[in-house]
Amino acid sequence: MSALHEHTAAQLAEMLRKKEASSVEITRSVLERIDAVEEKLGCYVTVSPEEAVKMAEEADRRLALGDVKPLTGIPMAIKDNMCRKGHRATCASKILYNFYPPYDSTVVRLLKEEGMVILGSANMDEFAMGSSTETSYWGPTRNPWNVEMIPGGSSGGSAAAVAAGEAVVSLGSDTGGSIRLPAAFCSVSGIKPTYGVVSRYGLVAYASSLDQIGPIARDVRDIALVLNIICGHDPKDSTSVPRDYPDFTSFLDKPVKGMKIGLPREFFDKLEDPDVNRVMKETREIYQGFGVSFVDLSLPHLDYALAAYYIIAPSEASSNLARYDGVKYGYRAENFDGMIDMYCQSRAEGFGAEVKRRIMLGTYALSSGYYDAYYLKAAKIRTLITNDFRKAFEECDAILCPTAPSPPFRIGEKMDDPIQMYLTDVFTIPVNMAGLPGMAIPGGFSSDGLPIGIQLVASHFEEARLVQLSSAFQNETDHHLKRPSL
Amino acid sequence: MKITAEQVEYVALLGRLALTPEEKKKYSAQLDDILKYMDMLAEVPTDDVEPLAGPVKLFTPLREDKVEPSLSVEDALRNAPAVTGSSLRVPKVIE
User: Fold this and answer.
1) Which of A360, A388, A416 to mutate to test the interface with B (most CBs of B within 10 A)?
2) Which residue ranges in chain A fall short of pLDDT 70?
3) Strand order in the sheet with A398-402
4) Which residue among B15, B34, B80 sits closest to A329, beta carbon to beta carbon?
5) Is residue A178 among the annotated active site residues?
6) Residues A372, A374, A380, A384: is their CA dihedral positive or negative?
7) pTM
8) What is the ipTM of this complex?
9) Catalytic, out of A29, A48, A158, A178
10) CB A182 within 8 A of CB A160
11) Fewer C-beta neighbours within 10 Å, C or N terminus of chain A?
12) Contact predicate A473/A283, CB 8 Å
């Protein structure tokens, strides 16, 4: 029999109910796995083993009393940008190296109420700005499938931990692809829900009109189980949408016959990588076998999404990150000359190169004389992109495209070429720009064994349809069952 | 459009970032490249398009005007780099 840390959350929950394992046993199995492979991968910023075992003991007490929810007792990881009272949240930045949040984010509160076991906080690109998890102050996370490769970013630690058995499920955040890209590169499943579905209260802000929290897991069943916990209205987040959500597990294994999938030509025209092309072709054939039909579509403004995003996201970041001033919390420089210089020195020493680059870019775009040419223009293009998608969804139930233009690349390969790095997100960014839900699931492997993800995108609040389509795919394929050998 | 050294310095000050001479050089070249890439947006006619501030319809959520517990002074100050009594300590601002 395989070790406990290799199972999915659904399988472990079943074992807990049948008393075939305890939460403490499961948690210890995952902690042992962390001890064994963490040094190789660097998935975590902070692991709290004693606290995790305590949470597992509490879960076992609840299980004994029959006071259980579906994922009570399952060990998981949060991302290092999510506040958890008394536990360090650094955003993988020196400027927050010693920040201990005085309150729980709403997602952490919901996980605690479920009785899940929080193992620690996962590594990420500094302030979630990156596609490779190389910009972390704590060092890069490595891809479990090949440790010379990046795991994708910015939620690289969250995805690599799930792929490597260092967590059963995890949470990530996604501003331009930060859940879907690492999920694809690590061959796990991940969804960015519709903007406004999961509360962002207690999530350290990067770009507030784009950020969204979502789960990463080994299969879509686990994704549905975590969505059931975290989706819901929160009065503490003014962008949280008041509405009811279905039981997402009721959409698993549901037939997809008769559904229509859109194929935007602007996405497929760009595909140069032969392995990604092959995976997309195989994916289409599998869906065809289910009785799904395909519609060729055009999203005419898609080609402008990346440029518009890299105005909007850094602009919002430059404003959000103004709070790091060395006064209320975080790093303060030792030597400075007066108040303004204290800000300038603390920020210069506390932020890494990519964060500074985006603050510079955003500050420039918002500065007097350039607002109309950059930010306003980008916001208008955002309207056009959103309208393109709206029209597309009149003709189809979901859109299919790759998650990334290529398999994972080498550590260091794109660090000095920001535009090449930004282009990694070309298929994920338009989804954030329009606030749509997007799911990344394993689609296959390249000729040299590196993961390739596929992406399904639906209309606003149609997460259930993505669960349905992804579950159909996983019932027919075994890509999601493969595990890296470490 | 070429980003001048003065512009980089001005933007760095607005962004409250003390940059080294090497960083100034690097960022001015990289911002140039990135902004050149952004120039493609000018191709799109947008005169009659409304800007989109956020993907979902925003409304003003109201709640009952009821006092609820908030952060204690101790908790609020716990992460501060310098504290005097119940205040945050900063360099002298007014001469």
Assistant:
1) A360
2) 1
3) A44-47, A117-122, A75-79, A169-174, A212-217, A189-192, A438-445, A451-457, A398-402, A260-264, A293-297
4) B80
5) yes
6) positive
7) 0.97
8) 0.95
9) A178
10) yes
11) N
12) yes
